[in-house]
Structure formats: structure tokens, C-alpha cells
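Study this one:
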Amino acid sequence: MDTSPRTPHRMDPAGGCPHADNARLLERGAVAAVVLPGEVHGMAVLGHEALRDFLAHPEVAKDAAHFTALREGRIAPGWPLATFATVRGMTTADGDDHRRLRSLVSKAFTMRRVEELRPRVEELTAELLDDLARAAGRDGGVADLRRHFAMPLPMAVIGELLGVDAEHRERLHHLSNQVVATDIGPEKALAANRELIAVLTAVAAARGERPGDDLTSALIAARDEDGDRLGQEELIGTLMLMIIAGHETTLNLLTNAVRALCGHRDQLRMVLGGEVSWADVVEETLRWDAPVSYFPFRYPVRDLTVDGTVIPRGTPVLAGYSAAGRDRAVHGPDADRFDVTRPGRPDAVRHLSLGHGAHFCLGAPLARMEATIALERLFARFPDLEPALPETGLVRDASFVGNSVRALPVRLGAPRG
């Protein structure tokens, strides 16, 4: 048993493509000791099977009360990952608290409710494709697909679902991007967190004065009806988590899928020809280039042995989704290959990129629906779309949490239809 892991791997605050480091770490084992920004020591679970078991383990908590270094005051103010640990909401709650908070929002994400949103997603997609074409027309045939299409679609959907006025959405995206950044300095991190809370507090106040048929109004009603069901801090924390998770994941998924398809034109032709489905494209992208690379945090409530490595009680643990997606022990010797025809696994767990267990992504059906519609309509209209820069020329997100690029300039080619 490996009770003393090798020299810890330093997580690069600047992010970058994770796959080469992931491969090296997986060669050493399914669990790795890591050093986080600020010289905070933690662990990462990388292997598919180890991660699947860890995510569902009954003695692994999400509440930062179990985070030893934080509890003992050894985490400096403005630590870039602090929000992931300290925000009050579903992703930092356990047991009855988690079930209480999740039940307050789960009705908005049922399969039936998601299907009711389909016409609006299709309408928004059509409008944004027009915007993308206009942007390309203004800029010599090149437009940033991320800015004009991949970001505003999920932001508009989650914004409408929550009742967030359009005037706030671009600012909320900017602040969300700073919250998930891992290279941000303490002063900027604190300022971004304060401003995000202020904007969301203003959104909640507006909805309190003018309630509507939206999730924020429903949450405010729950707060006002019974403070034990939802407190003010939990209300703002829930809005923060839903804004960030509700658009950042889908934004990266769409961006990564377009990059993958443009880099594998033979597979794009198969999808356009109807040989495989757009849903297959979404699932293979989630596996091959997970939109969230390393998600913070979980904490063992006792010393826990995972795949032969001891993770001490109270250690902050990253869920290594991007590594698990290319784990050869599970996905075969060609795990590094993007393949939309890849057969599903017998246990139906094709990947873990949307989580597993009690904290499985509540918005997974919505993200899948948005991505499927967006990709199908994008390539139906612009089948010759191609990146305007080589992959090596694209600037990566400054985060080891999110996994994508900051911009994706594309040439649309001749439209069809």
C-alpha cells in the first residue's frame, strides 16, 4: 500500500491543456498528491473507477467544516479557490442540508421541464446564429464563436430560468469567469466575490419586489415562508452556483465540441450524414475533453484508502474529470482518441464529467439538450465552419478548474439553407 505518495504535483494556476499532465499522473496511479495555489496541499482522484467510488463514498463530505487547513485558519484571505469551499449551497452541503437545498430547485430541471424549454432554446439558437453571421460580416469573415454563440446561449437560458435581467448577464459571466480562475490574485478574488454577491443580491431584491414565474422568485418565496428551508446566505449562494454552473459548463462543452469536430472532419461528415447522433457528439466530448477539468472540493471525514493510497482526513480533494475521461484502464488503449462512434460501456457510465452520486449535476439534462440543439443547428447552417487559428494558437482559460479556451475565432464559410 502506498501510504506516502510521491512528490506532489503542482497544479498550474495558469491552467493550460490538462491532458499531458493527466497522462503522466495516471501512469503513477489513480490518486495523486497535489499542491494548490498558496502552497495548500491536497489530493486529486484521477482514475475513472477510483473517482466513481470516491464521489459516492459515504465518508466523503462536501461541507468545508471538514477542511482541516481552512478550519485551523491556515488558508489566506483571497485564496482563489475559497469560493468553491465557502459558498453556501448545494455543492457545499451534505446529507439533509443537501437534500433540502436540492429539493428547492430540482423541479426546474426535470426532464419534463427541460423539454418545455426546448422551443425557447431553439429560438435563442437561431437568433444567436444570426448574430454570429453578422459579427463575421463585420470582421472580415471571422467571428469569436465563444463570445457570440457558445456563451450567450446558456447564459440566456439560465438567466431566463432564474429571472435575471439581460442587463446583468454579461457582467455575471465576467465575474463567474474570475471566480473559477485559479491564477487570480487575492485582492481581485475578494473584489470579484464581493461584486458577484452584490449583483445577485440586487437581482434577488428586484425579484422580491416584482415576483415572476422564475426560479429566483420561487426561492425567495421559500425563504420568506420559512427561514429554516432557505436562509438569505443560502439564497445568494444557490443563485451564484446556478449562474456559474448553469452556463460555464455548457459554454466549455460547446467550445470543446466545435474544436473536436473541426479537428476530426471525417467524424463531422459522419454526424452530418446521420450515421451517428449529435447526442453521441456531446457524450464523447464530455468524455474526451471534459468542460470541467478538476472540480474542488471533497473531504474525507476519516483517513481513507483510495486505490491503495491514503487520503488523510480533512484533505481538500479535487475530482479529476478530465483525467478520468481518458483513463486507459477503463476506456481502452485508444482513450486519447476522439471517436463519436465509441460504444457505450455495459454499466452505462460512459464518463463522469457531470459528476456521480448524490451530487450528480442537476442541470445535466438541460446542458445536454442545449448542446445538442446548438451543435446541430450550427453545423447545419455552417457545415464548412473552421477555426481561424490553429489549436496551438488558441489561448487557454486561466484555470485548472474550467477546461477550454478563452476565445474561438472561426470562419463560417458559405451558409446553407
The first helix runs from residue 19 to 28. The domain at 9-411 is CATH 1.10.630.10 (Cytochrome p450).
